[in-house]
Design goal:
This protein has a two-stranded antiparallel ribbon with strand order 1-2. Helix 3 packs across helix 4. It is mainly alpha-helical. The protein has helices spanning 2-12, 31-59, 68-84, 90-106, 109-121, 124-133, and strands spanning 20-22, 27-29.
Length: 134
């Protein structure tokens, strides 16, 4: 029932029960509980929107586009947003792999070797020099 669903939400979100009043047809809660509910809702909606964006970007063939660079810029923004919002799922991992493949394809072999060497040796100075080149 609706009442049971509301109780499940309250329990799942660990809302303070003393700040919530249950009526016959309504659930009343204080401002702090409202903020928590809104925040959780916004996070869920952002993740759904991001998943739709990632699906679109992954399923698009950049070679068929007039400006494939714009596609990869959008992909990079989406990957950064996933990191910012801590979205970790199969779509975000696939998007990261696509972006890394694109970036690596644009790096010449000498620079790529320097990058691998800097990472292997864990040398921050070498890594900074490579980043300047890239």
């Amino acid at each position: 029932s609706g009442k049971k669903g509301c109780q499940d939400v309250v329990s799942f979100l660990n809302l303070k029960k003393e700040n919530i009043r249950e009526g016959r047809t309504m659930l009343l809660y204080r401002a702090m509980e409202h903020r928590v509910l809104e925040l959780k809702r916004n996070i869920i909606m952002e993740k759904r929107k991001m998943n739709q964006t990632l699906k679109e970007l992954i399923n698009t063939d950049p070679s068929k586009l007039d400006e494939p660079e714009l596609h990869y810029e959008r992909l990079a923004r989406a990957v950064r947003a996933c990191k910012r919002y801590n979205i970790q799922n199969a779509l975000s991992e696939k998007a990261k792999k696509m972006l890394n493949t694109y970036i690596e394809s644009r790096i010449d072999s000498q620079t790529k070797n320097l990058l691998e060497e800097a990472i292997t040796e864990k040398d921050i100075d070498k890594l900074e020099r490579v980043c300047i080149i890239i």
